[in-house]
Amino acid sequence: MKIAMLSRAPNLYSHKRLKDAALARGHEFDIINTTRCYMNIASRRPEIYYNSEKLPLYDAVIPRIGASVTFYGLAVLRQFEMMGVYPVNESVAIGRSRDKLRSMQLLARDGIGLPVTTFAHDPKQTEEVVKVAGGAPLVIKLLEGTQGIGVVLADTDRSAKSVIEAFRGVNINILVQEFIKEAGGTDIRAFVIGGKVVAAMKRTGADGDFRSNLHRGGSAAVIKISPEERSTAIRAAKSMGLNVCGVDMLRSNHGPVVMEVNSSPGLEGVEKATGKDIASMIIEHIEKNAIPGKTRTKGRG
User: Fold this and answer.
1) Is position 278 within any domain?
2) Span 16-28, mean pLDDT?
3) Which of 122-126, 141-145, 169-173 has maximum average pLDDT?
4) Per the CB 3.0–4.6 Å rule, which of 148, 236, 248, 269 could disulfide with 211?
């Protein structure tokens, strides 16, 4: 098979692992810098150009699109979809997962456990927002934040109001969520491939940091998840429409609650914590599913 990966960082652990796994299984593998692509839009035969040359027709594409180039990256991915190339994750599904508000609304619609989450436009409604979320401590998140950036813990109602009013005063959209104290600064990442949880790890934040992101100094260890947590992760992936994703959950007093569904989860932490070859599992998923034109949305999202 001929596989392309959209990425601006070919030397990342995850991307090198995916390339090595594909080559080991006898496939061709090209890493394409997303922002260097340009497209012929007004053609009955969709085309993508890269470094002044028309790209060949691939069997599958692995989108590893950075958060800072989501808009353009999804446009390039849609073009691949319109050409009938099988995407590991479809553009519509990635767009859902990258929009924190939309993803929370979709998860809530499907009855998946969530922390109490509020959203408002008018800073004059700050007091009501804090009240609905259950009062301090509260977690305040930028809608566009990734890897723990743009996430603030407000310990008191007064500090929560100050942070909310500051963000809304400069027209920055935020979510306000209850703080799950009983999680103790740890979360669970369940790695889902093709509707199955293939690995899970517990992430613990660095000393003094309530965020458990590995990029922020957190640590990871293998964990055995409950049937309810497994079911929650699978349903969350299905809500987003993602074939491959990391579902981040907290253990609350009322069961697992989903914090985020990541469409481009890193492989390093989960592979090292669990000893599993996740990269090869992703390539195997492509081998089983990469049928020309199988994309559900065909770039129409």
Assistant:
1) no
2) 98
3) 169-173
4) 148
φ/ψ of 31, rounded to 5, equals: -100, 125
Same domain membership, residue 210 and residue 246:
yes
Surface-to-core class of residue 286, CB atoms within 10 Å of its CB (0-12 exposed, 13-18 middle, 19+ buried): buried
pLDDT at 182 over 80: yes
Overall domain count for the chain: 3
**Would 163 be classed as within a structural domain?**
yes
Tokens of 194: 């093709």
Residue 200 in domain: yes
From the list 199, 194, 201, the residue with the least C-alpha distance to 238 is: 194
Residue 132 and residue 67 share a domain: no
Name the more confident of 35 and 142.
35
146 part of a folded domain: yes
First to last CA, the chain: 26
Residue 187 and residue 213 share a domain: yes
Q: Is the dihedral of CA 27, 57, 296, 100 positive or negative?
A: positive
Q: Which of 172, 171, 127, 132 is nearest to 152 (CA)?
A: 172
pLDDT at 264 over 80: yes
List, as one string, the DSSP characters of 182-231.
GGTTEEEEEEEETTEEEEEEEEEPPTT-S---GGGT-EEEE-PPPHHHHH
23 pLDDT exceeds 80? yes
In the structure, what pLDDT confidence band is assigned to residue 55 with cuts at 50, 70 and 90?
very high
Number of other CB atoms surrounding residue 227 within 10 Å: 7
Task: Read off the tokens for 216.
Answer: 């922020």
Percent of the chain that is helix, strand, coil (3-state, to 5): 35, 25, 35
- Answer yes or no: do 34 and 161 share one domain: no
C-alpha 58 chain-centroid distance:
24
pLDDT confidence of residue 42 = 74
